[in-house]
Amino acid sequence: MITLTKEDGPADLDGVTHLSIGVSWDPTAGSSGGVLGALRRKQGTDLDLIAVALQGGDPVRLAGLDSLDPLGNGALLHSGDNQTGKGDGDDETVTVEFAKVPPVITSIVFIAAAYKKGSSFQKARNISFKVYDATGGSSQQVADIWPSLLTADNGCLVAKAVRSAGDVWKLQVVNETGKIKQGDERALMRFAVSK
User: Which residues are 141's β-sheet partners?
Assistant: First the structure.
């Protein structure tokens, strides 16, 4: 088992064959009461968990939004788009099977974003990111990352998995926020390589 915090620096994932990262959030009415508040809670808000596979500093594949298996071999799988935040547990997850990741992929960056127009972190509550060691078919939580509620940003770079010498992966908790132009996939990619 590994235990991760941002302050610990990169954790060696030797022996971890499958890693999952999940995001969960609750819909909120914000300061609205009555009918408008009920409608906002019912509608929810759409946050997105996105994994970007990098070749050096160049983004080459994206898991999330409408791409669930971008490498085509199950190495990087997205659970699908939850557009409301309703339900228990993780609302969206990305799972990496390290043995299947092609050698040209040098790192994988995990981002949560209010990417679609009209969505925002401020329209969600209790946002959290969980990191799981999913080796052997069962998931054991190894980190719980909570972004600041004070941010006006709409993107959070949650963590980064980096391939090191000997084909060993390391995972670093990043938990840094920033602005991403909504609906702009290139802006999302620039954010992925900026941290």
Answer: 132
d(CA 80, CA 94): 9
Residue (of 47, 46, 41, 48) closest to 27 by Cα position: 41
Confidence of residue 39 (pLDDT cuts 50, 70, 90): low
Q: Work out the pLDDT band at 154, boundaries 50, 70, 90.
A: confident
> What are the structure tokens assigned to 87, written together?
């339900």
Bridge-partner residues for 164, per DSSP?
Answer: 168
Q: pTM, whole model, 2 decimals?
A: 0.85
pLDDT of residue 34: 56
Please report how many Cα atoms fall inside a 13 Å half-sphere around the Cα of residue 50, on the Cβ side.
26
For the record, the structure tokens of 66 come out as 């409408």
Q: Which of 161, 149, 167, 146 has its CA nearest to residue 63?
A: 161
Q: Among 150, 126, 109, 108, which Cα is nearest to 47's?
A: 126
Dihedral sign for Cα atoms in the order 43, 149, 2, 192: positive
pLDDT of 28-37, one tens digit each?
655 555 555 5
What pLDDT score does 119 carry?
78
Task: Identify the DSSP state of 67.
Answer: B
How buried is residue 51: exposed, middle or buried, by Cβ count under 10 Å (0-12/13-18/19+)? buried
